[in-house]
Amino acid sequence: MNSFIVLIFALAAYACAEPEIVPVPGGKSGSGITTRYWDCCKPSCAWRENLGQSGKTVPVRSCTKDGRSTCDIEQETGCYLNSTKASYMCSDQGPWAYNETISYGFVAASFKGGDDNSKCCSCVVLKFQGALLGKKLIAQITNTGGPLFQNHFDIAMHGGGVGPATFGCWNQWNAPFGGWGQPNGGECDQLPSDFQSGCRWRFNWLGVDNPDVEFEEIYCPHELTRITGLAAYACAEPEIIPVPGGISGSGITTHYWDCCKPSCAWWENLGESGKTVPVRSCTQDGRSTCDIEQETGCYLNSTKASYMCSDQGPWAYNETISYGFVAASFKGGDDNSKCCSCVLLKFQGKILGKQLIAQITNTGGPLFHNHFDIAMHGGGAGPATFGCWNQWNAPLGGWGSPISGVATVEECDELPSDYQAGCRWRFNWLGVENPDVEFEEIVCPQELTRITGCS
Ligand SMILES: *[C@@H]1O[C@H](CO)[C@@H](O)[C@H](O)[C@H]1NC(C)=O
Ligand SMILES: *[C@@H]1O[C@H](CO)[C@@H](O)[C@H](O)[C@H]1NC(C)=O
Ligand SMILES: *[C@@H]1O[C@H](CO)[C@@H](O)[C@H](O)[C@H]1NC(C)=O
Ligand SMILES: *[C@@H]1O[C@H](CO)[C@@H](O)[C@H](O)[C@H]1NC(C)=O
């Protein structure tokens, strides 16, 4: 719990402009080789017993079958044929480009050859050589492996080949037995939505097979530890704990995705709510964290701007429970009084029994009383004509219509890779347009606050 508090307070306090590459004095360095993999298995550094040598205390986060919901660290791995309620590599532990020369990512590594947990959760900068000279990967070590050589970095990238772990992706995603593609390849479009941008990174950013590197141990940036650093709660049961004396009642829902930095990402909007850390917002890539002082990308004149992070969208935990984020108003119009509070939305009518566990990250002038505008990718930009256009070169006014967004699940294919799962959620999980809800304020689960940093 303490490490979590430290994590969130540290999180909002750094800038989006410059990735920090700070060498560890006396740290590892040298020349090395790279390969690539994605075997879907819970990584080595996600086991307590493997952290001993490294001096680390919080294992790498691992996930349930959906690749998003956090698993208990005691959960067995989904890597074997006999796995049942198992734990897998989280889908967000893949690479993304910060710009043309710098990427972030995760690697399996060995410094002595073979299994080597001595540097679990340490970070390295991999300086690519040869045709890629000048490109760098800022990476956290989350895994190791028997087949690795000395100074060997096996870069985690979706569709990168499963190696000897034949059953992992087959168990998790019904992937072809032995994973997608040849054990050393893959076809990005056939992968789960959350895997596609990490898969394309190899072809679009890296562009070369298994480049050699010069490497140097560096202090881990928050940009990586925020993804791996939270492992202390259970995957089995979402926690729904009502806030005594919290708000409750009947409400309406709509949906939106305007790409704009949300209201609760501004210090000055947190006043009324008593919260102290604003919602995380992102650079144009939708993944790298922005400084909270960064202006919003919502207007025509925006330059170095801040946007809604792509991971602040919905996902299904199972058929009846989803997690997500909403813009809300309780008094009608702009209403920041409940910034970063959480609610349970119990859907009524045709989808009675389905529930959304949601954090309030935004508000808006056009909202009514007890109105929850559910954030879902491709959900309609409303009056914010320029946000998605600035961020993604979306059509002016966003994808689909400003009010209802894209009209069919097929149109989700036209959205950025990181948006597709959240877009399909509307058609595949929710299934009805703007259902009414009964709502109740609940204690925010870490499953949501780890994404926004606000609680
Ligand atoms: C990428 O970002 C780094 C750090 O801010 C900067 O030094 C570098 O010049 C950038 N590369 C490009 C191609 O913009
Ligand atoms: C599952 O199979 C693996 C590999 O064969 C074995 O190590 C493990 O003990 C088995 N687990 C159970 C619960 O049977
Ligand atoms: C979804 O998960 C919740 C909490 O673990 C459980 O109560 C519910 O029965 C599950 N629903 C389905 C359809 O499995
Ligand atoms: C950009 O436009 C918005 C809306 O028209 C305005 O509020 C803001 O002050 C402008 N910012 C700059 C830097 O010109």
From TrEMBL:
One of its GO terms (biological process) is cellulose catabolic process. The keyword Signal applies. Its EC number is 3.2.1.4. This is Cellulase. Belongs to the glycosyl hydrolase 45 (cellulase K) family. Residues 34-45 form the Glycosyl hydrolases family 45 active site domain. It comes from Ceutorhynchus assimilis. GO terms for molecular function: cellulase activity. The keyword Glycosyltransferase does not apply. Keywords: Carbohydrate metabolism, Cellulose degradation, Glycosidase, Hydrolase, Polysaccharide degradation, Signal. Residues 1-17 form the signal peptide. The active site is at 39 (nucleophile). It catalyses: Endohydrolysis of (1->4)-beta-D-glucosidic linkages in cellulose, lichenin and cereal beta-D-glucans. PANTHER family: ENDOGLUCANASE 1.
